[in-house]
Structure formats: C-alpha cells, structure tokens
Design goal:
Elements (H helix, E strand, L loop, with lengths): L59 E4 L9 E3 L10 E3 L2 E3 L7 E3 L6 E8 L14 E5 L3 E5 L34 E8 L2 E3 L2 E4 L2 E6 L2 E8 L22 E2 L7 E9 L15 H19 L7 H13 L3 H19 L3 H6 L1 H16 L8 H13 L7
Antiparallel strand pairs: 1-15, 2-5, 3-4, 4-15, 5-14, 6-9, 6-15, 7-8, 7-14, 9-12, 10-11, 12-13
Helix pairs in contact: 1-2, 2-3, 2-5, 3-6, 5-6
Length: 385
C-alpha cells in the first residue's frame, strides 16, 4: 500500500506522487496531499431590509444591535470614555456633535461588514446629507453618504476611498434603507522606507463591486492629497460624527491570513522562503516515516516523498536501499504471486517514475528500470483495448 496519511486528523485524497513537483518558488506540489486543508467556517445569512443577517461562525462581532455590544466602542478622544452614541431599534445611531467613536478592538487586515442607513427624512445636499465615514485602522476612510439622487464630488461619493478613488457605480438604496457594505482591507507593508506591498481596498455595496482592489495611497483626509507611507500593525475601526444621525447595525469582521510578504506559504514565494518551507515539509515527512515499520512499502514511499521536497543524505541512502530490495523482490516473483503483487508494484513503479521525472532520481534509476521490465514482461503496461 501507499504511505499512510501524514496525520490522522488530516484527510488525504489521491496519490502522493501525482501533480508537478515543488519548484524554486512554490513549496507545494500541484494537488499536494500534504498541503493543509482549509478550516471549516459556517456561513452566515444575508440581511434583509427589516432584519440583519447572521455573521459567519468565525466573525468577531463589533455591534449586534444590543446595548451590551455598544460597550465594545468608546469615544474617540485622547482620554477615552464611553460612547455617547445611542442604541435605537437594534441600531447604533450617531448623536450629532458627540464626536467620532472607535472600537476597543484593534486589527490589521480584515474582511469587514457594516450596514448603515441615512435618515429617511432627507435634509441637506451634497456632503451635508447623511454624512459619516468608516475609518479602517482609524486612518483610511470609506465614505458614508446619502448619494441617492444626490450628486457630490466623485471622490467623496458614498463608498469612495475618500479623496482618492470614486466608486465604480452608485449602488445605493433610498434614504432610510440599510446599505450593506462589505470591505476587504489589506494594509500597506513597508520595509524601512521601501514599500513591499501598497495594500488594497475592495468594497461591495449591496452586493455590487464598487472598489476593485484599489491600491492604498496613504492615509485619507479632507482637501489634502494622500501621501504613501507605512501603516501601524493594528488600529481601531472608527465611525465618523459628521453632524448627521446616521444609523449602523450588524458590524463584524474576520481577520485575514498573512500575505506571502508576511510569511504565508500560499503563493509565489522567494527562493529562500520556498527552500525553507520545503525543508520543513521534508522534515515532517521523515519524522512521520520514522513511525512506520522499517523496510515496509509505506516506509520506503514516505522517505521517497520527503526527497521530493528536500534532499537528505541519510534518507536517500535508506530509500535507495529499500527500493533496490523491493524491486529485487518483485523481480523474483512469478505466476500467481506476481499477479497478487501487481497493484502495489504498479503504484510503486509510478512513484519511481515520478521521482525520475522530478529529477529526484536519475532516469536510469535501477529499481525503476527493473520494475518497468517486470511490468512490460507481465503485460501490465499494455493499454486496454
């Protein structure tokens, strides 16, 4: 049989020797059975005009419509105190002139969900109508504004990256109705004064894409051009008091995993990072091989699998010894004994051929050649007609 799964907690599908092998910038093989399985998240439910939806199971709730959840927010002042905003009918409402509020939580890269509604009773125009703002990390604003039949300067439109990039379309519902805003935020990453990743903002408004991976140009502000620069590791979410009683409900976020530049191994890596990760995978496989019966087919193939990721003199010597022994044993069989070994021998042969294709062993690898000869003589390699 082929080697057992790496961990009893993991589920492996398919052959260990299958897709293209790891390369200089990808530590995982194509269709790699050793690659970690995605963790399970129970999806939430969609909101309706009358009722907020349910967040996904791993979401961190910032406001759920209750007075108790208002305690997760504070006044945005040098000496923080309780928020002066009020809870009405399951919504958090801005009290004009009470000031911005901010979360006590701080975070970096997130998926953020916010629902807001401008006052149903329309007053004012342009920037004076239903104005507020969603400030990511407290410094980058996604605009909140009632632009339903209400033009204003484009880069100050609702769901704009304020002062930087207008939304692609106006997908707003009428005043008094809740707007469902979903934001994917990746902060800028710098190394010293050098930008490694500028960071991006993606925004959906009522299910419509309005900001498409918009590069971050720096902190946003009024009347001033944004200047590129590093962001802190973490910051709070802020909501703006712009003098209008805008309501907010169903606010939650999900922390996002690190990017490649921060150490993730899912994507195109540097040669150095790839080499390190491949060595880690190989070491894990060799440790697992040590738990298997020495000299067994499982043990041999697990050692072979480890060599696909990184070389190791001791592991290679032991694998070659076992491979030679295995091939000699199969070659010595005949008749029903050989047929009984057919399925396993073909799987082992395919593993050896994969190793040769991946240049882990030479094309002339003797155990591979021996099994190919057995396969040909027994008619195992003949195509079914």
């Amino acid at each position: 049989m082929l080697a057992a799964p790496l961990s009893p907690a993991a589920t492996f599908v398919g052959n260990a020797f299958y897709g293209d092998a790891p390369d200089d910038h990808h530590p995982w093989a194509i269709h790699d059975r050793n690659r970690p399985q995605p963790r399970v998240v129970v999806p939430g439910t969609a909101s309706t005009a009358d009722k907020p939806g349910k967040p996904p199971s791993d979401a961190i709730i910032l406001f759920d419509g209750t007075e108790a959840s208002l305690s997760k927010w504070e006044a945005d002042k040098k000496e923080a105190g309780p928020s002066a905003w009020v809870v009405k009918d399951g919504a958090m409402e801005c009290v004009p002139k009470s000031g911005y509020i901010r979360t006590k939580d701080q975070f970096g890269d997130i998926q953020l969900h916010v629902e807001w509604a401008a006052p149903k009773n329309v007053q004012g125009d342009s920037q004076g109508r239903g104005n507020s703002g969603i400030f990511l990390m407290g410094i980058l604003e996604v605009q909140v504004l009632d632009n339903y039949n209400n033009p204003t300067y484009a880069d100050g439109f609702a769901t704009s990256v304020y002062g930087v990039n207008p939304p692609m379309v106006n997908a707003l519902r009428a005043p008094g109705e809740y707007q469902m805003i979903d934001i994917i935020f990746r902060r800028p990453i710098y190394k010293g004064d050098k930008v490694i990743d500028p960071g991006y903002v993606t925004v959906f408004c009522n299910g419509v894409l309005v900001q498409d991976h918009t590069p971050i140009e720096g902190k946003t502000g009024h009347m001033k051009r944004s200047v590129p620069g590093p962001f802190p590791q973490k910051g709070p979410l802020k909501l703006q008091d712009h003098g209008n009683p805008v309501r907010f409900r169903n606010i939650w976020y999900r922390e996002l995993p690190p990017r490649v530049v921060e150490g993730s191994t899912d994507g195109y890596l540097t040669a150095e990072a790839t080499k390190a990760k491949r060595a880690e995978i190989a070491a894990t496989l060799r440790a697992d091989a040590a738990k298997l019966t020495p000299g067994s087919t499982d043990h041999m193939l697990r050692l072979a699998e480890s060599l696909v990721y990184a070389p190791d003199a001791a592991a290679r010597k032991e694998f070659e010894k076992q491979a030679a022994s295995y091939a000699a044993g199969v070659k010595a069989l005949s008749g029903t004994a050989l047929e009984a070994k057919k399925d396993e021998a073909i799987r082992v042969l395919k593993a050896f051929q994969y190793l040769a294709k991946s240049k882990v062993v030479p094309a002339s690898f003797a155990p591979k050649t021996a099994l190919e000869q057995v396969s040909k003589a027994a008619g195992w390699d003949e195509k079914k007609k």
